[in-house]
Amino acid sequence: MAVRSRIYDLEERTFAFAKRVRRFVRKVPRSHLTMDDIRQVTRSSGSIGANSIEANDSLSRKDLRMRIKICRKQAKETGYWLRLLDMDSSGLDQEREALLDESIQLMKIFSAILRNTRSEENYLPPFGFRDSSLVLPRLRRLCARVDPTPCNSGQDKEEFGRRSCKVDSHV
């Protein structure tokens, strides 16, 4: 239950950020220079929340990581467009700085999520864990990729293309 509420807290946070950006850009003085920047910052801030929702409903770990990377990229882009908006005389610098800070915080949150959802392809369980249905396939994949030289000849040798690796059959 607590995990589910954290998911929605991030969705709410990205939604609130997009709304704050929209309120902010309504106050920005319009000119031919700022119109494109306003359009871009609005799009990128909304994209953070949309991709965050997509990540929560991801089909696989790979899909989740891709969506989170897009969220991080959009947060970075939002910060870029916010910095480009020229606020010399309008008195909106303080609000812009708060939005910049929030975009940096969101970028850090998505980076932390990426770190914590790294692919477990190369993971081997601790030595004491001996469920051969889980350990053997991973061990075979690792040996096939890592060990470029054939291991010593023995009766428990299995071929992996050009490479071979000694695998205990009783594991």
How is this structure best described in words?
This protein is mostly helical. The protein has 5 helices and 2 strands; from the N terminus they run αααααββ. Strand 1 (157-160) and strand 2 (163-166) form a beta hairpin. The protein starts with a helix and ends in a 5-residue tail after the last strand. Mean pLDDT is 76; it is low at 121-132 and 153-171.
Protein traits:
single chain; 171 residues; mainly alpha; two-stranded antiparallel ribbon; 2 strands; disordered C terminus
Shape: elongated
| Proportion of residues in helical segments | 55-70%
What is Rg? 25 Å
The count of strands amounts to: 2
* Main sheet overview: 2 strands, antiparallel
Coarse structural class: mainly alpha
Compact summary:
It contains five helices and two strands.
Which SSEs are present, and which pair or pack?
Elements: H1 2-27, H2 34-56, H3 61-84, H4 93-116, H5 132-146, E1 157-160, E2 163-166
Antiparallel strand pairs: 1-2
